[in-house]
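Hi, here's the filled form for the chain we discussed.

Project: internal
Contact: R.S.
Residues: 171
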Amino acid sequence: SSHFGSSRLAEGRAAHPRFWTAHRPLPPPPPPAAMPSRSAMALRQSLRRAAGALPQQRRFAAAAADPVIARAREMQKTPYDPAKEGKVSAPNYVGWDKEIDEGFTKLQTGPKKGGRPYAEICESALDLIGFTPMVRMSRLRAHLGVECELLGKCEFFNAGGSVKDRIGKRM
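And the returned structure, exactly as it came back:
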């Protein structure tokens, strides 16, 4: 006997991947004295139905997917035929060169106008109203013991946690 409660489980049946989903043990029934016998029978019958419903649904889903999986495996094993598929080519990319750099530079649009000047790091949350805040993380820097300026950008954050922060500050 094993800790699963049956020696047959220890002999290899539990190794099957669907064993636990298809053959779940029913929960123990409540003690007979706890409820009338009719209620106990109805509860047991309901538990049996519930335990059997899930594996049937899974079997249905697996049966529906089997033709798709079979077709995918068939396509995977099909060798490449240039006469049917055409020539497949890819550029010989060896790294960033002068031509790529010129094309990249030509496509740049330049800096955006307006907005928050990120060189100014605020000391108070009130200074952050209306902007995506950047916060100096001095306590975390000290805790980690790093020798740099540690900043955090708080996306989707306003000082008071509301879209009404701007009007609230002016009031």
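Let me know if anything looks off before we file it.
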